[in-house]
Amino acid sequence: MNKEEFLTAATVAAREASRTSHLLAGITVAQAALESAWGSSELSTSAFNFFGIKARAGRDWIEMRTQECRRGMAVHARARFAKYSSMQECFEDRDRMILQLPVYAEARSVAADPEQFIRALAQHWATDPHYAEKVLQVYHTNGLDMLDSASAEVPIVP
């Protein structure tokens, strides 16, 4: 999947998930782009997991090597990640987790503000201390903020 194909598919999935969750579609696409290397990561191609969502009890999973940041140092380990049947299923699960898990209460409280939302989400979503800035850079430099503006029906052109 190239960047343009990813943006098209992710925009559709994010908008559909957003219809129910009311979370910002542009931030969802930016987060997926960063986490999945624009849909080219092994996790996204093998398991339709575009957010690095870890496996939970009762769900299909795939075990893969991952890099986490611990005490400021990159550490490689193996972890079990959730396996999905489609991009849409993954995007809907991401939104459901954010809306239901207590750890994301702060993110929910600022969900209408892209910068505050991703900063609050990043505190528990990722171990990278620069995660929020990286997502916001993808969000702004690729025009994904247009998905969250009044002209949200305008398609993204990479």
* Largest sheet report: 2 strands, antiparallel
Count of strand segments? 2
Mean pLDDT metric: 90
In N-to-C order, the SSE pattern is HHHEEHHHH
Give the strand order of the largest sheet, numbering strands 1, 2, ... along the chain.
Answer: 1-2
- What is the overall silhouette? globular
Calculate Rg over CA atoms. 15 Å
What is the CATH architecture term of one domain?
Orthogonal Bundle
Strand and helix map with partners:
Blueprint: H1 3-21, H2 25-36, H3 42-47, E1 61-70, E2 73-82, H4 87-100, H5 105-109, H6 114-125, H7 131-141
Antiparallel strand pairs: 1-2
What are the key terms here?
158 residues; alpha+beta; 13% strand; globular; disordered C terminus
Textual characterization of the structure:
It is a single chain. The chain has 158 residues and is α+β, with helices and mostly antiparallel strands. It has a domain of 108 residues: Lysozyme (Orthogonal Bundle), CATH 1.10.530.10. The protein is built from seven helices and two strands. Strands 1-2 form a two-stranded antiparallel ribbon. Strand 1 and strand 2 form a beta hairpin. Helix 1 crosses helix 4, helix 2 crosses helix 7 and helix 6 runs antiparallel to helix 7. The two termini are 14 Å apart.
